[in-house]
Known about the structure:
By secondary structure, the protein is of the alpha/beta class. It has two domains: 6-293, 3-Layer(aba) Sandwich (Rossmann fold), CATH 3.40.50.11440; 321-381, 2-Layer Sandwich (Alpha-Beta Plaits). Helices cover 28% and strands 22% of the residues. It has twelve helices and 16 strands. The strands form four sheets. Strands 1, 2, 3, 4, 7, 8, 9, 10, 11 and 12 form a ten-stranded mixed beta sheet that branches. It has a two-stranded antiparallel sheet with strand order 5-6. Strands 13-16 form a two-stranded antiparallel ribbon. A hairpin with an 8-residue loop joins strand 5 (118-122) and strand 6 (131-135). Helix 1 packs across helix 2. The termini are far apart.
Amino acid sequence: MEEKRSLVAVLRCDDYSEERVYGTMKKGIDLIGGMGMFARPSDHVLVKPNFLHSSDESRAVTTHPSVIRGMLRILQEEGYGDVMFGDSPAMGSCRGAANALGLTDGTYGARIADMSETVTYDFPEGNTARQFQFTREVTEADSIINLCKMKTHALERITGAVKNVYGFVCGQHKAAGHVRYPNDVVFAKMLTDIHRAVGPKLSIMDGITAMEGNGPSSGDPFDMKVMLFSADPVALDTVFCWLVDLDPALVPTNVQGEIAGIGRCTESMIDVVTLSDDGQEEHLTRGELFSRYGNAEFDVVRKGNVKSVLSLWSRIMNRVGRPVIDKSKCLKCGVCVEHCPVEGGAIHFENGKDRPPVYDYSRCIRCYCCQELCPAKAIRKR
């Protein structure tokens, strides 16, 4: 019997108007089986957006509030009465990030999750990680819906559905994870273990305005005008790669995700579905998908040997690449110094805050936490 392929729905969505986003989400979920395929109305549901940190929606750092509200509205209309939403940011609080986006308790009957209480979660079957420090809400949820953002990422090239689950780890433990899993491949393997432990039932990607360049927080907004829907997080991220003309095999979370069995990145095993202008269901080849929705001008690192996600090449590249500070942009705020996960720090101020901090590259593990959290977009990977 022929093996069933992973289904990914891709729909155009031109802007973040509430009704347009809601309508697109209804159609996308229906195309892959309907809400009942992913959760029961009696379930305790956790909707997990990307709240990297408190940020204005126009910067494309976080999942857009219209997407979050659209999901909560659909759940309320379909009779889901026990719904929470939230993420555990690396900096700041879940409530602070939600409030910055205009989201409050009671939005379509849902509650803002606290996401600050740590629960040790044992996972002896893990290939790389056998224990996690999750937020309490993750361990209590019956069904998790993953609302990821379409963005670039200094360590993994892109961040999407697979990477978004790192928000299950309580914020104060995130830095330690980068030390324990210090390169792109082993970090990707750890993310696949999270999926295997408590993986989301449904992933939806906000690609209406994506982030290109120096992502995941210091890049630039880029209008892709699409939303993606799938039960398979790896297939969804693979289709993201197709849309921006990036070889999916260069993305460690894709390759390691398929190896671990949480999804597929092999082209022949992915079925892309969309709707025609007259509302008819259409299945697209990779080429047809790119012709209709893709954009090769999206700024993402496309260079590299495919072996880099499978072998020593990854570690070599991590040693050659390094974070650097643009002194003209640096605010000397110390966020990078404060959040460096290396014991004793790999970045510090030499003589007070009169000058930008400096790196000790012999200690730097190339996790790019500094780049990810810099509020001034002053750090990038060289």
